[in-house]
Amino acid sequence: ARKNLSIAELSVPGSRFPLEGASDADIGANAQLSYTLSPSEHFSLDLHRSEEYRESLFLVLTKSLDRETIPVHRLVLTASDGGRPSLTGTMELVISVVDANDNAPQFNQSVYKVQLPESAAVGTLVARVTASDPDLGSNSEVTFSVSNIFPENGMNIFLLNSRTGEINLLGTVDYEDIRSYEIQIEATDKGTPSLSGHCKVVLEVLDVNDNAPEVWVTSLSVPVSEDASVGTVVAVLSVSDRDSGANGRVRCWVWPAVPFGLEATFAGSYSLVLREALDRERVSEYEVEVRAEDGGAPALRGSRGLRVPVSDVNDNAPAFAQAVYTVLARENNAAGAELARLWARDPDEAGNGRVSYSVWEGGVGVGVGGGSASWSGWRAASSYVSFEVRAVDAGEPALCGNATVQLFVLDENDNAPALLPAAGSAPEAGAVAAEASSLSSEPGSEPGSVSGTQWAWAAWGAPAGQVVAKIRAVDADSGYNAWLRYELWEPRGKGPFRVGLYSGEVSTARPLDEADGPRHRLLIVVRDHGEPARSATATLSVSLFEAAEAALAAGSSSSSSGSRSSVGVEVGGGAGSAATNVWLVVAICAVSSVFLLALVLYGASRWAPRAAVLSGPGPTTLVCASEVGSWSYSQRHSRSLCVADGAAKSDLMVFSPNFPPPPPGAAAKDTQPEPSSLLDT
Predict the structure, then answer these.
(1) What's the CATH fold of domain 214-311?
(2) CA–CA dist 452, 450 (Å, integer)
(3) Strand partners, 520
(4) CATH fold for domain 418-434+449-543
(5) What is the model's pTM?
(6) Which residues, including other chains, have CB under 8 Å from residue 412's CB and lie 6 or more apart?
(7) Which of 117, 187, 223, 479 has the most CB atoms less than 10 A away?
(8) To which CATH superfamily is domain 2-98 assigned?
(9) Where residue 603 falls among pLDDT bands split at 50, 70, 90?
(10) One fold for both 214-311 and 418-434+449-543?
(11) What are the pLDDT digits (tens) for 260-292?
């Protein structure tokens, strides 16, 4: 992390600047933070702790700042917690010193001495004064003005340029009239308040000779290669003066003094030679002036300007703006798609600066076109997590630069939830066969068709909140794309069952009773949180039994759980008392059987001479108590009692119990309880 601060240059020591403290999600000693600052002679830290308020962190100025010495201070703030081991966090403080007008303009010379021949023409540059101000902005902008001139008539002879500091000849000078001038010049900056510096220009008027030296270029070898060695001859010049004697003796020099110089070869001939190494990327062309001055009194000068271009050599390798690039790319993008665009700068020109790119891995380069990180060929995806891009110029010999690309793949919601095979059922749980289909849909859309059904059993009288089944699903995506929620799609409204939004548990919404019916079909939709959302659906068929029958069904189902998928179904708190009810029903049926047998024997003994027969259209259907202790009348049949000498009577009625249909694949012995006999006349 980085924080930028701006502090005035004139801030006094002891000034405090608030900093934002760090935060730690831990508690207690693990959240107690301490701070340290990288060594600095100008700054320190001050931490205030209070039980009433949040701790305050300040940056304290310990030594006066000087922007002209250090314009930017870079410090590292480290926060450490009190845990074991201690964890730390760092933040870079970049402190920019805001300039103050605390420096007056300074001339490079306190006294400028100038000699001017009396034959100088109007407009001649007499002198150039320069002043510098190390401040910034308007504080460093300098203007020049003449504060005083002696003699006073010089005010009409010399003109000072307030911006450049050049003093030009506005009129004519006469050696015989005035031999020297003194000009007081003031340099003032534009700060508030403004500061000023002063210098003096002493101008000496020289007697003239009437012929100035002349400079001619006789040979010029340009452009000059930037790798040319020191001493290379660039041009040959001839210098002459038509005067004689001292007025004809000429001296020459070059301006600026670097990187070229003049060497005299023979009388009147000079060579312009290289004195320092060249760098085309820093200066691609030089404007050189060769100046000549005779020995007259006053001396006359002549000059010749030369344009010297510098030719390029391949002395710069391509350089990337960053050593490491981080690229984020979504999954499922098309082959050949552009992942990133890298650019390397080569300051050379022409072929030396023309850069080609390649992916470099294991000593084998793969071409990259147009600066885009795209390549041909198929390799394992893991090889693209981090790779190196090489930039090579077209120079001779070729130079290259490298950069590392780190690729991070972002997840897309391209996987629908998948229903898992259920865990093995507990001994007291019912078996559930699980099949479902997956689809992609928008939130709120109709679920897709279901390819299979899950089965579960529950007991009448089960309390609210009892878990009947659990839907289990996973999503191969990550983040929100893999966060699943479960919805009961059908039946809608206030049904007897509900589904946990994020657990997938199917539980009773209220106590179950006979009015709820023997069977319920639930359509459950599993959705993720992606955009667009994807979902899977499953159908759960819940059969309702007496608690004892549900336990028997669960036991028979668990015995065959090895051949099919199953989930646990919680039976409820009444399972213990249900076994007692079973024995009670068996006892009642046994007593009823004895009573029936007695009635048959009694009737046989009474009507034996009449040879009565008991007949009917089919075998008599026995009657037993239902799961809730009441008679079942849904499959009622009448049977006829026939005697030899009388009409048939419908005195004997036998009832068949109304058992719910068995689940698919369940054996008859698993679903039909042992019947008991009871005769109602």
Answers:
(1) Immunoglobulin-like (2.60.40)
(2) 6
(3) 542
(4) Immunoglobulin-like (2.60.40)
(5) 0.40
(6) 330, 331, 332, 477, 481, 530
(7) 187
(8) Cadherins (2.60.40.60)
(9) confident
(10) yes
(11) 999 988 888 999 999 999 999 999 999 999 999
